[in-house]
Every structure is written in structure tokens, then in C-alpha cells.
């Protein structure tokens, strides 16, 4: 999960702060998700998928 999420973010030229602001969470909360230290809520997963234009399976499996 970690590498996929980070790779997708970087491919879109987005910072962790950009992602966090767009999905309505703090940058530190997003960092924990990206590092694999916290599981995101379903709402956050949906927001990430929509923002990054990808599928859930590309990020988390």
C-alpha cells in the first residue's frame, strides 16, 4: 500500500499537504496512511480514489 499510494501521489505532482487538504484530513493523518501506520476510513478511501483517478485495488492491494 505505502509505495503505491506515494507513487500515485508523486505521479500527480501532489504533496502530502495537497492530498490532505483535498480529502479533508490533516497532513499528519495522511502521512500516517501513506506510511502504512493508520488504516483510512471508507470515506477517505473513496476520496483518495476519486482524487487520484485510480482504483482501490491499485492503492491498497
TrEMBL record:
Sorted keywords for this record are: DNA-binding
Claim: DNA-binding is one of the keywords in the record = yes
Where are the annotated coiled coils located? none
Which Pfam families does the record associate with it? Answer: HTH_3 (PF01381)
What CDD domains would the database entry show? HTH_XRE
Instruction: Name the domain of life.
Output: Bacteria
GO MF entries: DNA binding
The top of its lineage is: Bacteria, Bacillati, Bacillota, Clostridia, Halanaerobiales
Please indicate if the UniProt record lists DNA-binding as a keyword. Answer: yes
SMART domains with a match to the protein in the record: HTH_XRE
Residues of the HTH cro/C1-type domain: 5-59
Q: Which InterPro entries match?
A: Cro/C1-type_HTH, Lambda_DNA-bd_dom_sf
Which Gene3D superfamilies does the annotation name? lambda repressor-like DNA-binding domains
User: What's the protein here called?
Assistant: Putative transcriptional regulator
Amino acid at each position: 500500500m505505502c509505495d503505491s499510494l506515494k507513487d500515485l501521489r508523486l505521479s500527480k505532482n501532489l504533496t502530502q499537504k495537497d492530498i490532505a487538504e483535498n480529502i479533508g484530513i490533516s497532513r499528519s493523518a495522511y502521512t500516517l496512511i501513506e506510511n502504512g501506520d493508520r488504516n483510512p476510513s471508507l470515506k477517505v478511501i473513496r476520496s483518495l480514489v476519486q482524487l487520484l483517478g485510480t482504483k482501490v485495488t491499485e492503492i491498497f492491494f
